[in-house]
Q: What sequence folds into this?
């Protein structure tokens, strides 16, 4: 079979073949050798984003064909078991049961239908039904029918349309899937990075990052679902690595690193040494390199060779790649006949070998090695001592004494203090979001930092909960729980190791407590309750203050009685003691013209005013 697209216009197309919705082959031509009945099916090819029509292939070996009923994923499938009673026994009670691939899927009931609310591919199979009388005196089974549940759409694939390589590049991911049996089916797409959703479901099958950063590195996948959500499928992962940039050039190293060849920090006078300003792949040949000795400019170019070396060449060397400056590297040019040779930079996890080297022209006999003045290798004919895989306990002063001769044997000694650098820091684990509420997408991040002298060291990360491993070592420093539950609470820690397991470090534990959903609403409920109580208290205080307000303007003085101008009849009825009722002259105001034409009767308010005598 050939996927023919005519003229490609010079483009390199990606060809993908599908059989019955399943990806089976990549390439323009697909050949089936020694075809079998299993090769029968609906074939379709995809050329980049364009798909072909379906082509049916049937491999026939027999004239007998099993009856097939076609159902598509997500459909509501109903199987009906039909029979006819004898017209002489029309009231006979019957029971029905259903089988799939010989196994019972529905017990005997009086209902002659078996329903599957949302059919899936795994519901495909050979179905039959049994009919029985209530007393099981008569039982009959139907013939089998083959029901094939066809895919609504094929498993999606995620492809990089624009693959980023360095920080700042534009990244575009494309998620494609075909609907083979329901053309025009509306699909929705979502994208994930390391299991975390980065783009919610929508009709766009593309995910883009305008300016990719280091944190955008990870395992990407996409998920496709039908509009009603009954059918969902997720693609495989693709790994995307965003690399650091040095002035527009690629490299894992953010800053350059000075390397020596040979890799010794002490050499004899008259020997040569080559220094390289390493910025990582691809090398950055078009960068401007400058070399410094004791912070003074001495040379230009990526490589700096000293030949022959003199004692004047001893010093601290560094290089600069455009605007980025390296750390200093110490070189000592010695005159004596013996030197203890130590690698330029020693990190934990290194397999360290020391060499007690003598100048050419001498004959060596035996050597002894010390650490902090204690013998670590006694006199022997070997001039090397293998310390092994080092850690911080190996820091110290190392000394070698060697018996050499030009004419007579003499003992010569050299020593060096060897610091051991941390390959990476003790990791720290953190959780987001904080606090975590039930149902949240919880992410644990294991943070560490590599030595600037070993910026390209490969690390692996693992996560533990309550001392038990919850994720094995991988290259990704995050562990996610898509929907955190209360049972996910516990003490979490993470572990970091090198690819060779030479260095392994574990973080401190942090307690992660998943709060119940109700916890989300506790704060607003408390706030609302306090506000209601405050309003009630304010209202009661207002009422109380007005109850205590006694008007005195109309209170009679001793020996003086005001004559009421209005009948006290109704007011007096409201008082238990008429002597406590006081009437005062109302204050009248002239209103605007037409004010007296009221649309309703004016309100009348009577008040009981208690007055007390005020001494003069």
A:
């Amino acid at each position: 079979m050939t996927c023919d697209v005519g003229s490609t216009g010079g483009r390199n197309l990606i060809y993908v073949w599908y059989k019955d919705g399943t990806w089976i082959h990549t390439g323009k031509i697909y050949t089936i050798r020694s075809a079998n009945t299993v090769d029968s099916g609906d074939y379709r090819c995809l050329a980049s984003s364009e798909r072909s029509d379906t082509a049916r292939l049937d491999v026939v070996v027999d004239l007998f064909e099993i009856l097939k009923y076609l159902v598509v994923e997500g459909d509501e499938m109903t199987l009906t078991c039909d029979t006819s009673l004898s017209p002489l026994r029309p009231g006979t009670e019957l029971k029905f049961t259903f089988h799939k691939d010989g196994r019972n899927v529905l017990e005997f009931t009086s209902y002659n239908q078996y329903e599957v609310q949302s059919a899936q591919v795994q519901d495909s199979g050979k179905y039959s039904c049994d009919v029985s009388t209530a007393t099981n005196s008569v039982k009959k089974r139907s013939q089998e029918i083959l029901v094939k549940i066809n895919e609504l759409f094929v498993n999606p694939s995620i492809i990089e349309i624009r693959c980023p390589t360095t920080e700042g590049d534009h990244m575009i991911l494309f998620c494609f899937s075909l609907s083979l049996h329901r053309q025009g089916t509306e699909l929705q797409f979502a994208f994930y990075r390391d299991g975390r959703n980065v783009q919610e479901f929508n009709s766009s099958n593309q995910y883009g990052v305008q300016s990719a950063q280091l944190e955008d590195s990870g395992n990407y996948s996409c998920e496709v679902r039908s509009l009603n959500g009954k059918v969902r499928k997720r693609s495989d992962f693709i790994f995307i690595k965003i690399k650091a940039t040095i002035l527009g050039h690629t490299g894992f190293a953010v800053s350059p690193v000075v390397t020596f060849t040979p890799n010794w920090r002490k050499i004899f006078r008259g020997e040569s040494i080559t220094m390289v300003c390493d910025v990582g792949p691809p090398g950055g040949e078009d960068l401007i390199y400058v070399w410094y000795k004791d912070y003074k400019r001495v040379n230009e170019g990526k490589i700096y060779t000293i030949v022959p070396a003199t004692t004047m060449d001893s010093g601290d060397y560094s290089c600069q790649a455009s605007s980025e400056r390296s750390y200093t590297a110490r070189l000592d040019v010695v005159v004596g006949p013996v030197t203890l040779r130590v690698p330029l930079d020693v990190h934990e996890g290194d397999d360290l070998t020391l060499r007690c080297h003598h100048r050419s022209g001498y004959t060596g006999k035996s050597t002894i090695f010390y650490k902090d003045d204690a013998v670590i290798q006694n006199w022997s004919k070997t001039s090397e001592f293998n310390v092994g895989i080092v850690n911080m306990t190996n820091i110290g002063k190392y000394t070698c004494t060697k018996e050499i001769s030009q004419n007579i044997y003499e003992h010569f000694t050299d020593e060096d203090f060897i610091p051991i650098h941390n390959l990476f820091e003790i990791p720290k684990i953190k959780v987001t979001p904080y606090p975590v509420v039930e149902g949240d997408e919880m992410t644990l991040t294991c943070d560490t930092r590599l030595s600037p002298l070993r910026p390209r060291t490969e690390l692996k990360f693992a996560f533990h909960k309550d001392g038990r491993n919850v994720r094995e070592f991988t290259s990704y420093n995050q562990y996610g729980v898509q929907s955190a539950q209360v049972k996910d609470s516990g003490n979490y820690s993470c572990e970091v190791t090198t690819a060779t397991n030479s260095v392994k470090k574990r973080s401190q534990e942090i307690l992660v407590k998943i709060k119940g959903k109700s916890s989300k609403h506790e704060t607003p409920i408390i706030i609302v309750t306090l506000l209601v109580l405050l309003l009630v208290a304010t209202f009661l205080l207002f009422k109380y203050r007005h109850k205590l307000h006694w008007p005195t303007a109309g209170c009679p003085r001793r020996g003086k009685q005001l004559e009421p101008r209005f009948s006290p009849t109704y007011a007096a009825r409201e008082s238990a003691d008429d002597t406590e009722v006081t009437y005062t002259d109302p204050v009248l105001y002239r209103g605007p013209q037409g004010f007296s034409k009221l649309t309703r009767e004016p309100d009348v308010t009577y008040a009981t005013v208690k007055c007390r005598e005020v001494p003069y």
In short: DSSP finds two helices and 49 strands in the chain. The longest helix spans residues 519-547. The helical segments are 519-547, 569-573. The chain has six domains: 1-65, 68-150, 157-243, 259-418, 428-515, 550-582+606-616.
